[in-house]
Amino acid sequence: MEVTRIDHIGIAVRDLEEAAKIYRDFLQLKVTGIEEVPDQKVKVAFIPIGDSEVELLEPTTEDSPVAKFIEKRGEGIHHIAFRVKNLEEALAQAQAAGIRLIDESPRPGAGGARIAFLHPKSSNRVLLELCERTD
Ligand code: ZN
User: Fold this and answer.
1) Which residue of 63, 77, 84, 117 pairs with 102 in a disulfide if CB–CB is 3.0 to 4.6 A?
2) Which protein residues have a CB closer than 5 Å to ligand 1 (ion)?
3) Ligand 1 centroid vs 96 CA: distance in angstroms?
4) Which domain holds residue 85?
5) What is the pLDDT of residues 56-76, one digit of tens each?
């Protein structure tokens, strides 16, 4: 498997605009776009930094996984996404290695990415995402 970078860090927030302030006003980063991802029931704000980005995730429904996360654990870091060259191959290798998967096949992520989540039980309770992009 070829992992090329940390693609993004996903942060669960109640309010995108509120949460974006420290990144925009203090860290002087730009929010380059806001996109709704119906598959995950979130609105995502993209804040690129170098080869990676911070993604702020605001739930759009009460049954959104991010809403449940906030309810249980409060706002905070939700997941870390690793960029892979070939997502199908990475998932097959994860399965072969006995790593528990949340997604056995790729699904659509924000920004045109294809993504899959690994189960946090396999990674010290950190939710890991594998992410493939065409660029
Ligand atoms: Zn993500």
Assistant:
1) 117
2) 10, 81, 129
3) 23
4) 3-132
5) 999 999 999 999 999 999 999
